[in-house]
From TrEMBL:
Name of this chain's protein: Uncharacterized protein
InterPro entries listed in its UniProt record: KDZ
Top-level taxonomy: Eukaryota, Fungi, Dikarya, Basidiomycota, Agaricomycotina
Highest taxon above the source species: Eukaryota
Pfam families with a match to the protein in the record: KDZ
Amino acid sequence: MVGVFHGHAHNRLCQLNWHPMYIKGMGHSEGEGCEHVFSASNELARSTRHASRFHRHQAIEQHFAFWNADKYEALTRFIRNHYREATQTVRTLTAKLAIVKEALKLTDDDFSRFIIEERAYLTSLKQHPQRDPLKVRYTQALDELEERRHAWNRAREAGNGALDGIAVGDYNAITLALKQAGARLDLAYAMLQNAEQMAGHLQLQLGIESRWEIGGPEYTRYKAQGVLGEYHEALDELERLVVMRLFELSKLSMLDTGNVIQSL
């Protein structure tokens, strides 16, 4: 069972399908009871690593015997604290939920419908249309082609003015300026040709008769898809870095809200 927070390292669709909060009859649960037990028993590894089989089993049995005794002793306090916390949470969230429902004109049935729609949406994302990524790449190729054209024009303008400011008769300076201008022109033209070939190749694969215009409807549509994809990739990377940082802090026994915020 995977806790909600671990959705950053797991996936949201699995949470929607299997988290107890979304399953009728199970109610809300953090889903990490076993993890707490395993975390406490991990200390046994250090003391039993080189022990005999008998002493290893003895240490494990004693550990869980004391664990059960401690938990049984604290059971009344545990139930009382969690009951008070649950009643306070229900009271607070019920009031907040009533405000949200009134403001957005929602009913209880709408929340179940939202879960169904989100599950259907995430399921549909498993199979991306095969042509869309190619069209997004085509818009990127058009952008690159436009950029190479501007670079080619700037190189030509620079080549035309390569001898400006050079004294007449200074053959070394003239030769160096012409050589640099020629190298810049050759490089700009080669890059322009490569961009032209890439755009043409993608256009042929997509079966597009006339090249899309930058700013046109098709270009704008798939350009927006590309930007949104980059945004989602950035969010995924941010989540990965946050979770990785939290793991690092947990190893240093610094995993609390204040330290996390200050370190980020």
